[in-house]
């Protein structure tokens, strides 16, 4: 009889607890939104999935009782919330490539909702020439944002980010992580010379995580960039590195070179210790290895790939067979451009072959 009772009660209790949790969440969201806007919540959803990470960050698409849409976010780190709010407040006045801030209180922000398609989806469903135009517009908006930030001295108000020795060493730890998962021993590289190549002068305001999922293609075909909590002061070219080395950006060699040649001279050469394209290729290769490391760790934890459409629709990392293989091949192609990273080429090609069997 005890077994029968437990079988009946435990599911019901679980359902009740889930219901109470949802009621608590709804109450908090409605209260926060009212305090920040003076409007009531008609409905809300989680565009990036409810529990996408363990940090407690939340992003909510809210429709108010006035039928207007807003984005409300919770940043687990108060400093991130303060930084994002200040950047949106200052830059969106000059540049509509950022959403406008509505209000902030503590860790919570409400900002303008940008309608359109994420760049990941827009580029996945269009032809080559249209893709090229979208990419050029997206990079141009990042450059324009950097220029506007310089005009108002914003780079002086944000902190230098990711410039210490620990950060550089962590970038190369990714090679060991890939080796552990794949069983492919990483080759020896000249770590000191690579560290030297990554020693930048942080003079420019940068978005930093300028990946496709953080860009929205508006209906007027202009790009708007959101999620500014990780911005800071580094080398301006780093935004180009992040963009071009994203696993969701699938460019042929010819188009990739066209874009690099078009934009490489828009960034301050004195910020990097080596020629700009060399820095782009070296840092880009290392950055792509970091992305591959995270992808493989997630794949190993799940013992399977994530559905590709789900990744695109919910802005998830490209934990897919297609994106991981493409990224390994792109990293190999970039590594082949410089003697510092050339030893990685056979290893990355072998990684691509290994991924093809997974």
Describe the structure.
This protein is an alpha+beta fold and 358 residues long. Helix content is 51%, strand content 12%. The chain is built from twelve helices and ten strands. The strands form three sheets. The chain has a five-stranded antiparallel beta sheet with strand order 1-2-3-5-4. Strand 8 and strand 9 form a beta hairpin. The radius of gyration is 22 Å and the shape is globular. Mean pLDDT is 92; it is low at 1-20.
Topology (elements, then pairings):
Layout: H1 2-37, E1 41-45, E2 58-64, E3 69-74, H2 78-91, E4 101-105, E5 108-112, E6 117-118, H3 119-124, H4 128-151, H5 165-182, H6 191-197, E7 204-206, E8 215-217, E9 223-225, E10 232-234, H7 238-244, H8 253-263, H9 276-302, H10 308-313, H11 321-335, H12 345-356
Antiparallel strand pairs: 1-2, 2-3, 3-5, 4-5, 6-8, 7-10, 8-9
Helix pairs in contact: 5-9, 7-9, 9-11, 11-12
């Amino acid at each position: 009889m005890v077994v029968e009772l437990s079988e009946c009660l435990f599911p019901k209790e679980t359902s009740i607890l889930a219901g109470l949790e949802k009621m608590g969440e709804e109450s908090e969201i409605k209260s926060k939104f009212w305090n920040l806007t003076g409007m009531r919540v008609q409905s809300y959803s989680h565009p990036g999935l409810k529990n996408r990470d363990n940090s407690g960050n939340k992003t909510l698409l809210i429709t108010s009782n006035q039928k207007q849409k807003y984005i409300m976010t919770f940043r687990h780190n108060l400093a991130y919330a303060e930084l994002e709010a200040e950047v949106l407040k200052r830059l969106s006045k000059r540049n509509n490539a950022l959403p406008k801030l509505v209000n902030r209180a503590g860790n919570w922000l409400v900002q303008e909702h940008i309608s359109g398609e994420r760049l990941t989806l827009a580029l996945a469903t269009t032809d080559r020439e249209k893709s090229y135009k979208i990419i050029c517009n997206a990079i141009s908006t990042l450059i324009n944002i950097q220029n506007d930030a310089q005009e108002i001295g914003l780079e002086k108000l944000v902190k230098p980010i990711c410039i210490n020795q620990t950060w550089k060493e962590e970038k190369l730890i990714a090679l060991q992580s890939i080796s552990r998962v794949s069983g492919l021993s990483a080759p020896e590289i000249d770590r000191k010379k690579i560290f030297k190549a990554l020693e930048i002068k942080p003079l420019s305001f940068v978005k930093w995580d300028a990946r496709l999922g953080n860009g929205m293609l508006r209906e007027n075909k202009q790009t708007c960039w959101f999620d500014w909590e990780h911005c800071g002061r580094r080398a301006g070219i780093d935004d180009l590195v992040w963009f071009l080395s994203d696993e969701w950006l699938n460019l042929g060699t010819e188009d990739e070179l066209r874009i690099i040649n078009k934009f490489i001279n828009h960034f301050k050469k004195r910020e990097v210790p080596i020629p700009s394209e060399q820095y782009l290729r070296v840092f880009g290769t290392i950055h792509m290895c970091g992305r591959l490391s995270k992808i493989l760790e997630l794949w190993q934890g799940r013992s399977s790939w994530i559905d590709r459409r789900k990744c695109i629709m919910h802005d998830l990392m490209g934990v897919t067979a297609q994106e991981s293989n493409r990224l390994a091949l792109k990293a190999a192609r970039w590594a082949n451009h410089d003697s510092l990273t050339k030893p990685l080429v056979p290893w990355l090609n072998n990684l691509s072959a290994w991924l093809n069997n997974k």
